[in-house]
Structures are given as structure tokens and as C-alpha cells.
Amino acid sequence: MASIGRRLNQLFNESDIRNGFRICNVTGLRFGSVIVDCKCFFNPEKNVTRDLVEKTFNEETQNATSQWLGSRFQLKGVTVRALEPDIEPVTHSPALSSKKKSFALKFTITNLAYVVPLRNPKTKIFQSTKHDVESKLNQLFQNSILGPQFLGCSVEDFRPTTQVNETGVDSNCRFALDDGSRDVDKGLVYNVFKNLTSQGSSLGEYTLDKNSLHVSGYPSELTPVTPTKELPFWVIILICLSVLLGFILLFLLCFLIAFCLRRKAGKYQVQQNILGTYYPHLDMRKVH
User: Which run of H or of E encompasses 39?
Assistant: First the structure.
């Protein structure tokens, strides 16, 4: 059931009605071929009709010969019924609306150059890139420990960075907090994303800047931790040689000072041996 639920959520999160989609829950399995019962919730303000849901489902699961949900489940027929009481509480019930959390997820893609069309949400480049990034984000969280609570991610904006070959991504990810479910906070979302992207370095074919990841300001954007850069190997060798040369010069200087002092003392000894001992106070020449 969990696998079917994840694929249903992924299907609608990647469809044209994803902005109105909230979540699908599998409510039961009935043996026949097997028959699956599920409830999918949509935002009433988006005017998502029963016919539109059925059409979207059929289009997203149809291939050349038959209907498939993912690559595992082959389908035979679908029936969609509009259940107004179940749809309305998604946005109008205080109990349910108070049990949803949204997090601002920001990161930088280092192998996606920022181009002018990414400034305009109406361009094809913006829409295709948005769809691709959202698909990868949705797949990542649906396959994580937060999968049962995950509602969907939407890319809000693309922004330039200091590097022309990079693009910043601003997205919003939503989670449901059902009774008895784990609490979802920004630290948990941050760690889940980082662990499933090789420590924040890759999202599918996109490479990421490890230090660009922030979830609703976590970790603090005001005091980022700047990584210490290691000195190049040749610089370390140069420093060691400089220190060694300094010791050698100091040793030579000490040796020269000692040599000069010994040489001066030697000359004084020679004069003493040749002339004998001289007592200045007995010199009679000083009397006259």
C-alpha cells in the first residue's frame, strides 16, 4: 500500500494539476485483480474537477499498449468519484490546516547556468526546469523516512549567484502532521535532504554547492560557517625550506661570532708570550 501511495503522490505532483494537489492516501485493497481504494485531496480554490482528475490520471499512466502506475503496477480501469466532504476540509478545516508545515528549501545548482529566460515564469525554459527540479525533489522526499507525511515541493523562483554557471533555487516543501506521526522540523528536513543528496552535493544529474543548502534559515544564513582552506602542498614545502634555511643561517652566524672571539683571544695570548707580562703602573717612562 505504501508503494502505491508514493507512486500516486508522485504522479499528481508531476502533473499539470500539481498546484492544486495535496495528498493521496490508499484506504484499502480488495481482492479481485487487486482493486485499490484511495482518497486524493485537492485545493478547492484551484477548481480541480472530477473529470480533470480522471483525465490527468489516465494521461499520466497511459503508454503505448496499456496503463501503468510506475513500472511495477499495471492498471485496468479507473473510477473517480467527487467526495465534497473529503475535499473541503483540506483548506477549510482548522484541525487539518493546523497540521501542515511548509519549509523554504534553498540550494544552488552548480552545473546549471543562469540564463535570462529563467527570470520569467512564463517561458518554456523556466517551466521545464521547474518541472524537472520539482520532480527530483518530490521523488527524493517520497522515498525518504518523511515519505508518508510528504505533500509535495514546488519551485518558487530561480536566482542568479556570483558564478555565471550556477543557478540558485528557491522552493517550498509541504508536510502533513497526522495524529501519532513524527514531528517535522527544519533540522530534520535539512538532514534528510543532505543525507539523500550525498551530503548536499548532487540531486539527480544536478551537482549542488554543499554550502548553499538552507531550510527556512537553517543553518543560520547570517553566520555561515566558512570552510577552512588547506594550504597547497608546494606552499607547505616552501615554508619548511624557509624555516630550515633560517636555522642554517643562524648556525653560521653563531659559528662566525665564536670563531672571531677565539681568534682575538689567540692574538692576545701570542703577544703575552713574546713581550712578557706588562705592568702599566711600573712603567718609569711615565714619570718624566
Answer: strand 35-42
